[in-house]
Write a structure and sequence with these properties.
Layout: H1 5-11, H2 15-18, H3 21-34, E1 37-40, E2 48-51, H4 54-62, E3 67-68, H5 78-89, H6 104-113, H7 118-141, E4 145-147, H8 148-153, H9 155-165, H10 172-183, H11 196-219, H12 225-230, E5 233-234, E6 237-238, H13 241-272, H14 274-282, H15 287-298, E7 303-308, E8 312-314, E9 317-319, E10 324-328, H16 329-332, H17 367-381, E11 385-390, E12 395-396, E13 405-407, E14 409-414
Parallel strand pairs: 2-10
Antiparallel strand pairs: 1-2, 3-7, 4-14, 5-6, 7-10, 8-9, 11-14, 12-13
Helix pairs in contact: 1-3, 7-9, 7-17, 9-13, 10-11, 11-13, 13-15, 13-17, 15-17
Length: 416
């Protein structure tokens, strides 16, 4: 049964829709073809424009003074938007880089920027490769069958980013659970609860943990990213506790959940496209291109929102001051105007102008690290992989923001 345009638009506000790849991409293709800037009215949500074409997403991202992140940086229910505006007025809302615009964004982003520059990434790479080896060894120890998501892919990037922050390994499981509850608030298996108060409690737990960390690093500075954040000064003053905790939250959560989604989604794609797996194994020099194709194919960040600061036009559609726009990255990354045969998984795709890391001033701070992690893992896995197949049905998380697979049962043989 074919979708109507209205149904296709509402799919962008349906966590369950994102869990059904085929149906979701059918909805996005319809919007790109017939209504690429589409007004969406969905029950329980404030209305918004759905922006589904690559060129239009780029245009909005470039015009960062015309289209602001605040006050609605991600899609939430109307109830959530109201609560967030109330907490912002009280100075108690989550205020990460995702929530900020210039000049605050530029100044706050600079605090962590040096930790993700090429020199820092080169210094970190041996540790990343060591951890990649550990988790491929872990696959071998599991005896040829595992749930790749729950037993491998969620742990490897978590160890990398929390090691960079300088958190103790004893806290890693706690961080994993909180991250899954935060990004899985709409998924029956991962949510802590269904009410807004129960979901807010996850954020409060994060804040409590990171406020303790801030106090500890200020009392006893160390040589890690957590200490750099805790002791940063803006206009001569330290970050307030809320802004410091918000900084930790975005690094600790987005810094691993998106990468684990790419690693798992990439493996699923290789299993589903054995010709591409064979091609990559035969030509390891394709790995940098393959990594970007896995990122495009998976697109872990599903959307960000922007709010227009003035009346304007986008692809001939009149946008009014105060209107909200949803930038659909999975749609932009399958745009027929940009990608040759976009629904073909191609480990040699070149060029690959995907927008999975965003664009412009809000380009993902950890993009280089994510690429290093995915590459390190597959450069460790593929030379040892003799065979691999599904051992059950892959399952996606229900979400409208960040996510990918929550289950990937596999059966495999490794050498060594």
């Amino acid at each position: 049964m074919s979708l109507t345009l209205a149904e296709a638009g509402r799919a962008l506000a349906s966590p369950a829709a994102y869990a059904d790849d085929r149906r979701f991409h059918e909805a996005l293709a319809l919007l790109r073809r017939e209504s690429p800037v589409h007004w969406v009215e969905a029950a329980g949500y404030n209305p918004f424009w759905a922006v589904t074409r690559h060129a239009d997403v780029m245009e909005v991202e470039r015009a960062h003074t015309r289209f602001l992140n605040a006050p609605r940086p991600v899609l939430g229910t109307a109830e959530y938007d109201h609560m967030n505006s109330e907490r912002a007025a009280q100075g108690a809302a989550l205020r990460t880089l995702v929530h900020m615009d210039d000049p605050d964004h530029r100044v706050i982003r600079a605090i962590g920027a040096d930790w993700f520059r090429p020199r820092a990434m080169r210094a970190l790479e041996p540790r990343v490769r060591e951890l990649a080896r550990r988790y491929v060894d872990r696959m071998a120890e599991l005896g040829g069958e595992c749930d790749f998501v729950r037993q491998v892919s969620v742990h490897f990037p978590l160890y990398v980013i929390l090691s960079l922050l300088g958190l103790p390994e004893t806290d890693f499981d706690r961080m994993l659970k909180l991250t899954q509850e935060l990004f899985g608030g709409d998924d029956d298996e991962r949510q802590r609860g269904v009410t807004l108060e129960e979901k807010l409690a996850v954020l409060l737990d994060f804040f409590a943990y990171f406020q303790e960390l801030t106090q500890a690093r200020r009392a006893h500075p160390t040589d890690d990213l957590a200490s750099a954040i805790a002791n940063a000064r803006v206009d001569g003053e330290p970050l307030n506790d809320s802004d410091a905790a918000s900084y930790y939250v975005i690094i600790a959560t987005a810094g691993h959940d998106t990468t684990s989604a790419t690693i798992a989604g990439g493996l699923r794609a290789l299993i589903e496209h054995p010709d591409q797996l064979a091609r990559l194994r035969a030509d390891p020099g394709l790995m940098p291109l393959a990594v970007d194709e896995m990122i495009r194919w998976t697109t872990p960040v599903k959307e960000f929102m922007r709010t227009a600061t003035e009346d304007c036009e986008l692809r001939g559609v009149r946008i009014r001051k105060g209107d909200a726009l949803l930038l659909s990255y999975p749609s932009a990354n399958r745009d027929e105007e940009v990608f040759d045969d976009p629904f073909r998984f191609d480990v040699g795709r070149d060029p690959n102008k995907h927008l999975a890391f965003g664009f412009g001033v809000h380009y993902c701070l950890g993009a280089a690290l994510a690429r290093i992690e995915v590459r390190a893992f597959y450069e460790e896995l593929l030379p040892r992989l003799e065979s691999i197949e599904f051992a059950g049905e892959p399952q996606n998380i229900a979400t409208t923001f960040v996510g990918g697979l929550k289950r990937l049962p596999i059966r495999y043989t490794l050498r060594g």
